[in-house]
C-alpha cells in the first residue's frame, strides 16, 4: 500500500550511481518488514485465540481489527510523505 510512494520518494532522491545499492536495500527492508509484520499478526492472533477460547471467529475478528488499524497507520504515514515538486513545463507559444 505504501510501497510505491516510498520507492518513488527514495529513488527520486538518489544519485544514479547509488541506485543499485538502494534497490537492494529497499528490497531487503520490504522483505524483513513483511516478515516482521506477518509475525506480529500471528502473535496477535495467537493471543486472541488464547483469550477467546473456543470462540475462534471472534479471535479472527479481533485480529482483523488490529490489521485494519495497522493499515490505517500505514496509510496515514504514506499521506505524510513529502512529495516531489512538479516538473516545470515551458510556456506554450501561440500557433
Describe this structure in words.
The protein has 95 residues and is mostly helical. It contains 3 helices and no strands. The chain has helices spanning 3-12, 19-52, 56-79. Helix 1 (3-12) runs antiparallel to helix 2. The longest helix has 34 residues, at 19-52. The radius of gyration is 21 Å and the shape is elongated. It starts with a helix and ends in a 16-residue tail after the last helix. The mean pLDDT is 83.
Summed up, what is this model?
It contains 3 helices and no strands. It is mainly alpha-helical.
Q: Please state the CA-atom Rg, rounded to the nearest Å.
A: 21 Å
Helix content: over 70%
Structural class: mainly alpha
Number of strands: 0
Mean pLDDT: 83
Put simply, the count of helices is 3
Share of β-strand residues: under 5%
Task: Sum up the overall morphology in one term.
Answer: elongated
Topology:
Elements: H1 3-12, H2 19-52, H3 56-79
Helix pairs in contact: 1-2, 2-3
Keywords:
single chain, 95 residues, mainly alpha, 72% helix, elongated
